[in-house]
Request: fold
Amino acid sequence: MTCSMPLDYECFILMLMSYAERVLDYYNNPRNAGTLDKNSQHVGTGLVHVSEYVDVVRFQIEVNPVTHVIRDARFKTFGCGSAIACSSITTEWIKGKTIEEAFRLDHMEIVEALSLPPSKIHSAILTEDAVKAAINDYRFKNGMEPAVEEYEEPADYYDERD
Reply:
């Protein structure tokens, strides 16, 4: 079946059926949607948009300045249901974590938790990037060096006969 524009009811129902139950729950009942005071020194804000997609993710964290534990997390996402669900579930996950722990978030954890199809993995990547941008915004506001991705160096393969 092909969908016509504007989107007809039958096509809309087919699109909804393609989402996992958990995605629909987080889309229909988003947790922690909203904003925090971006001018607060304890709040970091990350805003991510990739031109190939319509989705825009704004992610904010409020951090305890002594322990660096995330006290609160909020999001505003413009985009598809999976983008909203990714942002929503991630706010729940990172509360109570240190900024170092939260920075290790991997988009594949979100993909697996929500059973996202390959065509929606970009939503989880945007959320991961927004979280990391929010953490680095907080770090910048507080005179800390930016956190960077830790990549494992590939093993050196060589022939012992050389």
Notes: Residues 1-5, 157-162 have pLDDT under 50 and may be disordered. The domain at 28-140 is CATH 3.90.1010.10 (Sufe protein. Chain: A).
